[in-house]
Amino acid sequence: MMKPVDYDVLIVGAGFAGAEAAYALAKKGLRVGLVTTSLDTAFLPFTPVFSPFPPGSLLAEVGQDGLKGWELHSRAKYRLECQPQIHLLQLSVTRLLLEGQRVVGIESWEGPRKTAPRVVLAVGSFLCPQLFIGDVVEEAGRLSEVAYPDLFQHLQSLGFAFSPAEATVAEQGGTPGYRVVYQVFAQGEWNPRTFRLGRLEGLYGVGLCVLGQGTYAQMAMEGMRLAQVLTDTAPP
Ligand SMILES: Cc1cc2nc3c(=O)[nH]c(=O)nc-3n(C[C@H](O)[C@H](O)[C@H](O)COP(=O)(O)OP(=O)(O)OC[C@H]3O[C@@H](n4cnc5c(N)ncnc54)[C@H](O)[C@@H]3O)c2cc1C
C-alpha cells in the first residue's frame, strides 16, 4: 500500500522559478508544498520589471511595466496565499528525505519534515554563495538574505557536482552595488528536457540553480515549463 504523503509536489524556493511552477501546478489541481527560507522575499525582483511577461504566468497576472520589487512581491504573495492548492511554508531546507535512491521529502532546520513523491530544487543563487559588498564578504544569495550551508553540503555528500556562477548588481537608490558568486549544478547533473537531477529518483531542478544565468521572465517560463512536464508525466 502507498504511504500517505503531504503533497503531490514539494518545491524548495519561492523565487520566480519555484513560485511560478507552484502556481501553475496548483491551477492544474496538484497539491503543492512551496517551502522557502523567507516568505517576505518570495517572488522579489532586485530591479523593476518590464513587459513582455510570459503569457499565462503569475508574473503576467501581477506584473506591470516599471513595477518595483516590493509591490510585485506583495501582489504575487497574495495570489500564492489565496491559492488553496498551495501550502506556502517558511522553512530552511537542510536535507532531502531518502528511501534508497528515491527522494521522498525534505527535512528543515526548524524541524518539520514534509513528504512528496516529487521534490523540486528552485534555490536560485543560494547554494554556497559569497556576497561581496565593499570589503565585506557575507554568506548570502542576495543582499540581506543569508544562505545556510546545510543543503549544499548534503547535496555534495550525495555526489552532486557543482560549478561557480556569478552575478553583479549595480548601485541603485541608496543601495550599494554588490557581487555574488554562487554554485550551480554542474553540466550533466541536470536534464533540461525532463528537469531531473539524475542521481536520485523523484528529484528535479529549475531556475537559476541549474541554468546559472537568466532573466526573471526566463525563470518564470522555466517554472511554467516544469509544471507542464510534471503534469504530463506520472510520479516515480
Ligand atoms: C545577485 C543577482 C542579481 C540578479 N539581478 C537580476 C535582475 O536585475 N534582472 C533579472 O532579470 N535577473 C536578475 N538575476 C538573475 C535571475 O533572474 C534571478 O536570480 C532570479 O531571481 C532567479 O530565480 P530563481 O527562482 O531561480 O531563484 P531565486 O529568485 O533566487 O529564488 C530562490 C529562492 O529559494 C530560497 N531558498 C534557497 N535555499 C533554500 C533552502 N535551503 N530552503 C528553503 N528555501 C531556500 C531562497 O530564499 C529564494 O527565495 C539576478 C541574479 C542574481 C544572483
Layout of secondary structure:
Elements lengths: L8 E4 L3 H12 L4 E5 L21 H5 L6 H14 L3 E5 L2 E7 L2 E7 L4 E3 L2 E4 L8 E4 L2 E3 L1 E3 L2 E2 L3 H8 L4 E8 L8 E8 L17 E3 L2 H4 L4 H17 L4
Parallel strand pairs: 1-2, 1-7, 2-3, 7-14
Antiparallel strand pairs: 4-5, 5-6, 8-9, 8-13, 10-11, 12-13
Helix pairs in contact: 1-6
This protein binds flavin-adenine dinucleotide.
Explain what the structure shows.
This protein is α/β, with parallel strands linked by helices and 236 residues long. The protein has helices spanning 16-27, 58-62, 69-82, 150-157, 208-211, 216-232; strands spanning 9-12, 32-36, 86-90, 93-99, 102-108, 113-115, 118-121, 130-133, 136-138, 140-142, 145-146, 162-169, 178-185, 203-205. A five-stranded parallel β-sheet has the order 3-2-1-7-14, covered by helices on one side. A hairpin with an 8-residue loop joins strand 12 and strand 13 (178-185). Helix 1 (16-27) packs parallel to helix 6. The longest helix is centred in the C-terminal third of the chain and has 17 residues, at 216-232. The chain binds flavin-adenine dinucleotide (FAD). The site of flavin-adenine dinucleotide (FAD) has 34 residues, from helix 1, strand 2, strand 10, strand 12 and helix 6.
